[in-house]
Each structure stands twice: as structure tokens, then as C-alpha cells.
What we know:
By secondary structure, this protein is mainly alpha-helical. It has helices at about 5-25, 45-65, 70-85, 95-125, 130-150, 150-160, 175-215, 220-235, 240-250, and strands at about 35-40, 40-45. The chain contains nine helices and two strands; from the N terminus they run H-E-E-H-H-H-H-H-H-H-H. Strands 1-2 form a two-stranded antiparallel ribbon.
Amino acid sequence: MSRRVRPLWMATAAVGLWLVPSLLAQNQSPLAGVSLIQSKGAASLSVPMQIIVMLTLLTVLPAVIMSVTPFLRITVVLHFLRQALGTQGTPSNQVLIGLAMFLTVVLVEPLAMEMYHKGWEPFDSGQETWQQAFQDGTKPLKTYLVRYVREKDVKLFLEVAHAEAPKQPADLSLTVLVPAYVLSELKTGFQIGVILYLPFLVIDLVVASVTLSIGMVQLPPVMLSAPFKILLFVLVDGWNLVVGSLVRSFYQI
């Protein structure tokens, strides 16, 4: 594995392992109350407990990574696009998920590398405790989330958590930022999906009007409009336009 790719995947794993404890441990450790054993004067978890914690983190890691990365918006938009085209299972879910995953890797690489250098490397070298490494490693993530969350969503989860609004956005906790980011990305994805739907909806209406006017009542308009929608999408190089617009939408904010 190349020197560039290896730290990226290590950084991605480190990001996921930090996020899950953060949702439960803003004021104290999520492992508070767990019996500890002393090894060389330092407190550490027993081996069975370490295995349980690691398996738990690995179970929720995919869902956490998909929720706090551009993967969420990309999958929503691609789903709407397939529905608008009326191609049903084409492209397949595996193809759309694969495309979304690789686009996410391209977009998240700078963030993952920054978190890796600021959080994981000092912790791995023994320069910082896991608490300090967590604080330093999640600062770039908070900066990223703040760029895309809406103020209305942040206020909602501040009210739900019964927390006071901080003086600076960087002081927001991940328990507020993460769900606010999910809501904001869902709204953005749905807005883009509606825009993608409109031109194909016009084609459906035109075809339906023509079939009704000539008395072809028993023939479903969808069967006639599907080839026209696919032809339009291919002629305008739709995949390039959609993917390019999606990627640029994360840099224009």
C-alpha cells in the first residue's frame, strides 16, 4: 500500500473511532464506571472489555462515517436522479453506493489527513493522552461541520439538549453539530433532487398530454417518456454535470 493511501485509511478509521465516544462523552468518558486494572502504574481496560468496546465501535462506525461526510448528500441526490430517470434498478444500488463512496474519499481526504496529523499521530507517539488527542483531532471536524449546518437546525438541537448557545460556533459540541449536519444535508439533498426532477417531469407531462390527445389511454405514458428522458440525459452528458455540480457544491460554501 502506498505511503499516501495508508495514512488516509488509518485517518478514516481514527475519525470513526473518535466520533462514537464523542456522542456520549462530551463531559465525561463513556467508559466511566467500568472496572480498570493497573498496568505499570497506568489505568487500562481489561482485554475482554477492550474487545467489546472495539466490536461496538466497529459496528456503528459505517453509519457514523456515512452520516458526517458528503456521502449523505451524494447518495440522496443519486437516488433522486435514478427515480427521475425512471430506470428503476439501473444503475444498481452497488454502483451508486460505490460512486458515492469514492467521491466521498476524494472530498474527505484533506479533512481525514488533518485529523490524523493533529490527533492520531500525537496519541500514537505517546505525546498526548486520548482525551487531548480527541480534542485536537475533532477540531478540524467541527470546523467542517460548522460550514454546512444551518443555524435553525443548530438551535433546534440546542433546545433539545437543553444547552446554552456558545459564544463561538467552534465551541459547539458534536452532540449538537452531528444531528444538525444530518438534517442540513438531507434538506440540501432534497432541494437538489427537486431541481433534477423538474426537467424530467416536464417530459412526462408532455408525453402524457400527447398520448391522451390521440386516444392512447391504455398505454402507460411512462413507457414512452423513459426513452426520451434517457436520451436527454445522455445528450447533455448528465452524469458529468450531476457529479461535477455535487463536488463543487462542497467547495462553494
